[in-house]
Protein: Protein HflK
Organism: Imhoffiella purpurea
Amino acid sequence: MAWNEPGGGNKDPWSGRPGDDQGPPDLDEVVRKLQERLGGLFGGGNRPSPEGPSDGGGRFSSKAIGVVLVILALVWLASGIYIVEPAERGVVMRFGKYADTTGPGPHWHLPMPLERVIKVNVDEISTITHRAAMLTQDENIVEVELTVQSRIQDAADYLFQDQDPERTLNDATVTVVRVTIGQSKLDFVMTEGRGAVAVTIKERIQKLLDRYKTGLIVTSVNMQPAKPPEQVKAAFDDAIKAREDKERLENQAEAYANEVLPSARGNAARILADAKAYRDKIIAESEGESARFEAILNEYAKAPDVTRERLYIETMEQVLGENGKVLLDVQQGGNSLIYLPIDQLMKQQPHQTKPETDNKGPAVATPSPQAHTPPQRTVDRERRSR
């Protein structure tokens, strides 16, 4: 049964209670009540009614406006607080013009629109790669590939001094690489000079970046091994192999020289020492012979006949000492049949000591203690027969 059917009773949903004849609430009345409640919060509770003015309404509304303005000012000032991360730098712009650069930590600036802050990451490393074929100083073509790593050093210069710092870095890299390779020879670029070429490229790129005030700093330049063009790669490989063989042979020769030279120097020193010893020996023997001759000369002056006889006997002993003949000095009228053990004498003869020479006197022959032969002297056979 509907709420408005006859006999159904008064079931109006807009009424406050059953049986109430009041209709739905007026929308204007709802809005008016809401305005009164909001006005009471800001001092508008004593708002003048349509019948006449009311006292004290303007005073409360002025306070409310002041509180609102203070809150808005505090919020505006608080919006100027900003925090710069350790890897960042804050660039403060005042009325669109650069004012200051702030480091890591909390800071404050005049809020918008007076000032604004641009945060720049200065620890981020950017990398560019350059690869090209170029001509060397000795008119050879070589392919070079390198990577250049950089980061922001001056945030203000990076933002305002150069329109496109990354493009400037790329152009500077291309220019410097071509100039440096063009001033170097092929062997220097492809072998031990690669590190020096990379250092030179880094220094020249940094000079150009500083001249243009890009705010960038080159951290490293990594140069890959230079390669010849594919058309002549086989010939370059042969040349490199020949160079390596040359270095290997030179190293082997140097090692052999280091091994032989000390031995040769030792042999030379030994030969020089032997020669010096031989020289000293000859000088000593010569001096001894001279002293001996002077001594004999003095003796000869005293007794010439005896000295001549002595010299003759000593000379014959030296000449006939190793002779295989046995000479007998037999007295006249003696027995010529003497038995001598010739075989035993011949065996004992090599054991006889050789004449010893004294530097201070004439030579003296020392006979063997087992040989008891008479003095050897040449005897005329005819004289003995008589």
